[in-house]
Each structure stands twice: as structure tokens, then as C-alpha cells.
Design brief:
The chain is mostly beta strands. The protein is built from 1 helix and 5 strands, in the order αβββββ.
Length: 73
């Protein structure tokens, strides 16, 4: 079965009671979306840069643990 939905997996499958916190941050001056795992640290979820060369950098691949500088919301 294939489920096509724009909803987050946590909402569809419901197994997690805690909602993850996401934050827009700078990692080496490149904007990324980070899933917070602690104060000032987390894992990269996606790159928000418009520079195609940033997507080739292995240190910015999704799932990479990082220490980040948070951008104001």
C-alpha cells in the first residue's frame, strides 16, 4: 500500500508522543533546517541554500549531527 500525504510521518503513524523541534540555523554560514536534539545541537534535516555547490558538501548531508547558530524566528 502506498500512502500519498503531505502530513508528517509522526502525525500519520502516531507512535511518537513528543513532537520534534525544528529550527532554521546556520552551519558554516549556510542556512539549514535542523532537528534539535539538545541546546545548540541537532541533526540536519535539509539544506535551505540556493547555491547548488552546498548540496555537494558531505558535511551538510541529512542526518549529520551539528552544532549550530540559531536564526531568529
Amino acid at each position: 500500500m502506498i500512502l500519498y500525504t503531505p502530513a508528517q510521518l509522526e502525525l500519520v503513524f502516531g507512535g511518537s508522543k513528543e513532537t520534534p523541534r525544528y529550527r532554521t540555523a546556520l552551519v558554516d554560514e549556510i542556512p539549514v533546517l535542523v532537528r534539535e536534539t539538545g541546546a545548540g545541537c541537532g541533526r540536519i534535516e535539509r539544506i535551505l541554500s540556493t547555491d547548488p555547490a552546498d548540496y555537494l558538501r558531505s558535511e551538510l548531508s541529512p542526518g549529520t549531527p551539528v552544532v549550530f547558530e540559531a536564526l531568529p524566528d
